[in-house]
TrEMBL record, chain A:
Protein name according to UniProt: Branched-chain amino acid ABC transporter permease
Keywords assigned by UniProt, alphabetized: Amino-acid transport, Cell inner membrane, Cell membrane, Membrane, Transmembrane, Transmembrane helix, Transport
Species whose genome carries this gene: Asanoa siamensis
PANTHER family in alphabetical order: BRANCHED-CHAIN AMINO ACID TRANSPORT SYSTEM PERMEASE PROTEIN LIVH (PTHR11795), HIGH-AFFINITY BRANCHED-CHAIN AMINO ACID TRANSPORT SYSTEM PERMEASE PROTEIN LIVH (PTHR11795:SF371)
Membrane topology: Multi-pass membrane protein
TrEMBL record, chain B:
Family affiliation: Belongs to the ABC transporter superfamily.
Chain's gene name: livF
Name of this chain's protein: ABC transporter ATP-binding protein
Keywords in alphabetical order: Amino-acid transport, ATP-binding, Nucleotide-binding, Transport
A GO molecular-function descriptor: ATP binding
Name of a matching Pfam family: ABC_tran
């Protein structure tokens, strides 16, 4: 308990940073669930591809795990570039998953169980494909941002990486919220989520909306992948599994199908893990996270903010 | 002829819901489909709007064969449906619901003007403009569904049970608005109704459906005074 009290500022900032990454990945699960009522298990492996996209980008500029740290300006430029590359790569792979694994099943009115199995199948195809391609090796992430605290207020310290992670995540979430709530395409997404048949009667092309949703989820996962790379300092073909599972849990915690719920769930899960591991020891980190999920669902089965895109607003 | 439905059949799994329906709608008309529950009225409507695929037959609209066209593309051709059960988007405001009606339109400059026109037709919607669709009463949702369909500036407006679940006074009001849409804006209307009395007195022509087939057709007035129709659908002993 002492550790929690003494370490509270550090645990909070670390928890928010980790939570921001969970939240970005959780958005992809919740968006797809919102329009398709489908858990896209391959999303975690789309994220994993993003972690490699960042490493390949940096290595193209001559940076590997042993390179010296670039200047701050150079680091920010390289991070921005890696984010663009990883986001595009993840967006493309997310759309590929939709077009090859799910769309053909919808065209044949497949039962829900078939979707579940192809989702798991697509997940393995991506992760095992990357395993074969990279010989199951672990790859180190080049050092980018300085590790000294950027500023401290009392015992609250924030490192450049933590600030970057939280700032980028907030920016992405605000942009997504604006897109879904304020633009015509966003209205199309909400229409399909709320009533797909009526949306078609209004002239909404359902398949195009679904593709768009996979693209957006992929973009978010790509951004998260770069941030996660820098935090974890290494990546591997199976890196998506645990983060994906936790992001999915975060989406359910907030109320799956609800965008703001996914953001909230991610942050809460990140904080709960960090506080929990201070009290019970780091071995209990994952135990605590999922225990919180189970306890919360016992009392609020629809999650914190309730189900479904936009429906929770009423 | 604006709409030509030629001998269509439709299956729900193994059950045949339509047994060769032939219907046409001329430009400027109000045409009603009446019949009992399960006669195939709504199913015919769904075949025209494209949410259900037909098993055989042809559908032509405005000279174009739309038999195999997806529902969302038929909206671009000029068909818009106010579905049975209203289909109001519950989490969207009245304004957003109306904007969904204009989803396919490219002439964005005229949309605000049309929205004003719809709000003049249904002043209640103006009062509820910023409220979520799911919080409206049944009658208000019905008005929203009809207004939303109008926002696409359809050549053919499909209305599925616009009077369902409404109080008698509202039924009267909604049929007056339907007539006004037809007469003032010249919008062609295909109407499915349980309320045969209202439908027949407003429609230029009508078809009577029974178990997936058309058993009678004629002008609204003819059918209104037809003894068999009176007996079966108008509740007159």
């Amino acid at each position: 308990m002492n550790e929690l009290i003494n370490g509270f500022p550090v645990l909070t900032v670390t928890g928010l940073t980790q939570g921001a990454i969970y939240a970005l990945v959780a958005l992809g699960y919740t968006l797809v669930y919102g329009v398709l009522r489908l858990i896209n298990f391959a999303h975690s492996d789309v994220f994993m591809i993003g972690t490699f996209g960042a490493i390949w980008t940096w290595s193209a500029f001559g940076f590997d795990a042993n390179s010296p740290r670039p200047s701050v300006g150079g680091a920010l430029g390289l991070i921005a570039l890696a984010i663009v590359v990883a986001a595009i790569l993840c967006g493309i792979f997310a759309m590929l998953v939709e077009v090859t694994a799910y769309r053909p099943l919808r065209a044949r009115n497949a039962p829900p169980l078939a979707f579940l199995i192809t989702a798991i199948g697509a997940s393995f195809v991506l992760s095992e494909g990357m395993a074969a391609f990279t010989n199951r090796r672990q790859f180190g992430v080049p050092a980018m941002l300085p590790t000294d605290p950027l500023f401290s207020i009392g015992s609250w310290q924030v490192t450049p990486l933590q600030l970057t992670t939280i700032a980028v995540a907030i920016l992405m979430m605000v942009a997504l919220d604006w897109f879904v709530q304020r633009t015509k395409f966003g209205r199309g997404i909400r229409a399909v989520a709320q009533d797909a048949n009526t949306a078609a009667l209004m002239g909404v092309n359902k398949n195009r909306v679904i593709l768009l949703v996979f693209l957006i989820g992929g973009l978010m996962a790509g951004v998260a992948a770069v941030l996660s790379d820098m935090k974890a300092a290494s990546t591997r073909f199976n890196v998506g599994f645990l983060i994906g599972l936790k992001a999915f849990a975060a989406a359910v915690l907030g109320g799956i199908g609800n965008l703001r719920g996914a953001a909230l769930g991610g942050i809460l899960l990140g904080l709960a893990e960090n506080y929990g591991s201070a009290v019970f020891g780091t071995n209990f980190r994952d135990f605590i996270g999922f225990l919180v999920l189970i306890l919360l669902l016992m009392f609020r089965p629809t999650g914190l903010l309730g189900e479904s895109l936009g429906r929770a607003r009423a | 002829m604006l709409l030509e439905v030629d001998n269509i059949t439709l299956l729900y799994g193994r059950i045949q819901a339509l047994h060769g329906i032939t219907v046409h709608v001329n430009e400027g008309e109000i045409v009603a489909l009446i019949g009992a529950n399960g006669a195939g009225k709504t199913t015919t409507m769904r075949a025209v709007s494209g949410v259900r695929a037909i098993a055989s037959g042809r559908i032509r609209f405005n000279g174009v064969d739309i038999t195999r066209m997806r529902a969302d593309l038929r909206v671009i051709q000029g068909i818009c449906q106010s579905p049975e059960g209203r289909g109001v988007f519950p989490g969207m405001t009245v304004r957003e619901n109306l904007e969904m009606g204009a989803y396919t339109r490219k002439d964005t400059g005229n949309i605000a003007k049309d929205m004003d026109h719809v709000l003049d037709l249904f002043p209640r919607l103006r009062e509820r403009f910023k409220q979520a669709g799911g919080t409206l009463s049944g009658g208000e949702q019905q008005m929203l569904a009809v207004g939303r369909a109008l926002m696409s500036r359809p050549k053919l407006l499909l209305l599925d049970e616009p009077s369902m679940g409404l109080a008698p006074m509202l039924i009267q009001q909604i049929f007056e608005i339907i007539t006004e849409i037809n007469q003032r804006d010249g919008t062609t209307i295909l109407l499915v109704e349980q309320n045969a009395q209202q439908a027949l007195s407003r429609a230029h022509r009508a078809y009577v459906l029974e178990t997936g087939s058309i058993v009678k057709e004629g002008t609204g007035q003819e059918l209104l005074h037809d003894p068999a129709v009176k007996d079966a659908y108008l509740g007159v002993a």
